[in-house]
Amino acid sequence: MWRGGEAKNIKNVYDFLKEYPHIWISSAQQLKRAQELIALQIDEDSTTARRYDDSRKRDYDMPVPLWGIDVYLIGVAIENLLKGILQEKGRSFKQVMDFGHKLVDLYDECCRKCGLTPQLIEREMLDVLTEFIQWAGRYTLPTRSEHLNGRRWILHFSSYGYGPLMFLTLPNSEGFAFSNAERVLINSIYERFFNYLAMGYIPKQRKLLHPKQYLLPD
C-alpha cells in the first residue's frame, strides 16, 4: 500500500474525490452485490431449516440467521445510488449529505432531475425502508421508545443455540420484515435508477492529483 504525505495533500485529494459522484455509485454496486450474496444464503438457510422436524434441534444447529440483512444492504445501496445520481446532476457533496437517510426525499428529487415519474408504491416502500435502514435493520430497537408506538413493527423473541434472539417483522409479512414480493419491489427500485445510469451516465475521466494513495499520518 502506498503511503505518503502531508495533511494538506490529504485534504486536496479528499476535496477532489468528494466532488466525484462515482464515490457513491461504486459503493452502491458493492452493497448490491453483498445483498445478492446474502439473499442466496438466506434462501439456503431457509431450505435447510425446513428439513428439521424438531424446532429446538433446528434452532440449536442452525447458524446465526441473516434475516433482514439483505434488505438493510439494498436500502443503503439505494441511498448511495440516489446520492450519486444527484451529485452527477449538479448537487454538491454537502447538499447530498444533507439528505441523510430520507429515501423518499432522495427518490423524489432524483425523479425530478432525471425526468422519471414517481410511483406511489415505490414511495410507500421507500418510506418503510427509510425506517429500516435508520434503525430497524441495524439495532432491532430504536434509540427512542416512541418509534415503536403505533408503528408497523412487531418485536419477536426467540431462542437459538447461541442464546436469545430478537427480531422485527412487519404485520402479515412472510419471514423477516419484508415479503418476497416486497423484496422484488425494493430490488426493482434499485434497478430502475441503475438502468437510468447505464443509459445516460458516463463517469467523467479524472486523474488523481498524486500517484500515491494518501493515508493519515500515524
List low-confidence stretches. 202-218
Find the count of extended strands (DSSP E, 2+ residues): 2
Percent helix, as a range, is: 55-70%
- Can you tell me the CATH topology of the domain at 22-139 and 180-200? Four Helix Bundle (Hemerythrin (Met), subunit A)
CATH architecture of the domain at 22-139 and 180-200: Up-down Bundle
Biggest sheet: strand arrangement: 1-2
- What is the 3D shape? elongated
**Distance between the terminal alpha carbons, to the nearest Å?**
15 Å
* Total number of helices: 8
How would you characterize the overall build of this protein?
By secondary structure, the chain is mainly alpha-helical. It has a domain at 22-139 and 180-200: Four Helix Bundle (Hemerythrin (Met), subunit A), CATH 1.20.120. Helices cover 56% and strands 6% of the residues. It is built from eight helices and two strands. The protein has helices spanning 7-17, 22-49, 55-61, 69-88, 93-98, 103-114, 120-136, 180-200; strands at residues 154-160, 163-169. The chain has a two-stranded antiparallel sheet.
